[in-house]
Amino acid sequence: MNYISTRGAGIGERHTFSDILLTGLAKDGGLYLPSEYPLVTADELARWRTLSYADLAFEVLGKFCDDIPAADLHALTRSTYRAEVYRNVRAGEDANAITPLTPLGVENGAQLSLLALSNGPTLAFKDMAMQLLGNLFEYALAKHGQTLNILGATSGDTGSAAEYAMRGKAGVRVFMLSPHRKMSAFQTAQMFSLQEPNIFNLAVEGVFDDCQDIVKAVSNDHAFKARHRIGTVNSINWARVVAQVVYYFKGYFEATKSNDERCSFTVPSGNFGNVCAGHIARMMGLPIEKLVVATNENDVLDEFFRTGTYRVRGAAHTYHTSSPSMDISKASNFERFVFDLLGRDPARVLQLFRDVEEKGGFDLAASGDFARVREFGFVSGRSTHDDRIVTIRDVQARYGQIIDTHTADGLKVAREHLDPGVPMVVLETAQPIKFGETIREALGHDPQRPAAFEGLESLPQRFEVLPADAARVKAFIAEHTGA
Ligand SMILES: *Cc1c(COP(=O)(O)O)cnc(C)c1O
User: Fold this and answer.
1) Is 123 in the pocket of ligand 1 (CB under 6 A)?
2) What pLDDT score was predicted for residue 483?
3) Catalytic one among 126, 290, 412, 434?
4) Which domains does the chain have, with CATH numbers?
5) Can you give the pTM of this predicted structure?
6) Does 169 participate in catalysis according to the annotation?
7) Which of 325, 328, 333, 388 to mutate to test the pocket of ligand 1 (most atoms within 8 A of CB)?
8) Is the pLDDT confidence value at 56 over 80?
9) Which of these, 430, 448, 479, 449, lies nearest to 126 by C-alpha position?
């Protein structure tokens, strides 16, 4: 399998999965994709239907990382996708399923179900990919005798998923910046209670943007970055995207009775990483009818899929909502889909994303390209705070389930795209306990806490307070990497 950039650099060069594993952007600023999507045969689809999650992951990922010896890859998927790791199940769920499917009911002739992606250590779907990434990084670094220092900024979710994936991993250190005293008590405790010596929580005296600016400043110091082997684990990392392809297969097998059926997926979306994996599963030949992109009030993606206009938002028009993990102003993985939509024309992709930087967006409505969006199965919708409250109440009353705010956005939009006889799977991206304030507003009480999280806030915490100053952060990293 060879990987190419969406902007054309490296065409004619060879990049294996291992070559791009530890990188983010390609050197021309584009994103990596396979030079062609591997297709799934009918025989494979039949055989895969009954596999465990770990064995299914081995089969799907094997098509994308043929440079990793099969026995090694199989060991990696089996150590990642275990019931002990994805153990935060709710009543009625089987931890062995890893991503259990819960049927809700039939609406407009369509069976509506929730696919739980949030039973991992941090109760959000980012664990699905990040846990694999931790094991892949450890494996690849050991093979080449290398080390890596991951630097990141978080306002909550991504940082904790990264820390829980990398804790105790040989060859990896994590330096995670977060705004001091600005995260919820639950999020703070989740990250700061980690005692592994390779995890460094840096509480920055400032806001999230200060943390991000520091990460940018450190990353732009190329000499420092090279000397201290600084890397990132952001959502454009190809391995993260491809790990998410697996649960579309799993969800399809759970929601349908035979491979002659089609099913649809609704995906609460922000950076377009999750639904991009659904697009890839469909390109591989998985019988997906619709891919429904659900946004909150930050509706950059909904606007595109309705109108063909992609218009990124400035800070003043990026809203803080009650589904905060979808509060994005531009979707960092969107370029991967645009590349396919335009028939994989890197010169046009380069031009369009230059327009994004220079003019704030582009419009594909006038060219014939936008019409093809439906051929790729995409439709969309948006949801607001009031919709979330109504949906959370309704799902509790009708089906006895408590869903989180992001999943509520998904369910609200899924209901606008049901087709009789086509099962609709809504991806559940987080557990409600993470967004307790909105659940209290909707239902008047707190959601139940998974057993492993009892008393979380009273555990001892390990963190370092630093001023919002890139030089001080660099000094801290230098001191703790010994280079
Ligand atoms: C990250 C996240 C999303 C958005 O996923 P993208 O891959 O960025 O589209 C949705 N819900 C939750 C809970 C998340 O953490």
Assistant:
1) no
2) 62
3) 126
4) 3-124+238-438 (3.40.50.1100), 147-228+455-480 (3.40.50.1100)
5) 0.96
6) no
7) 325
8) yes
9) 430
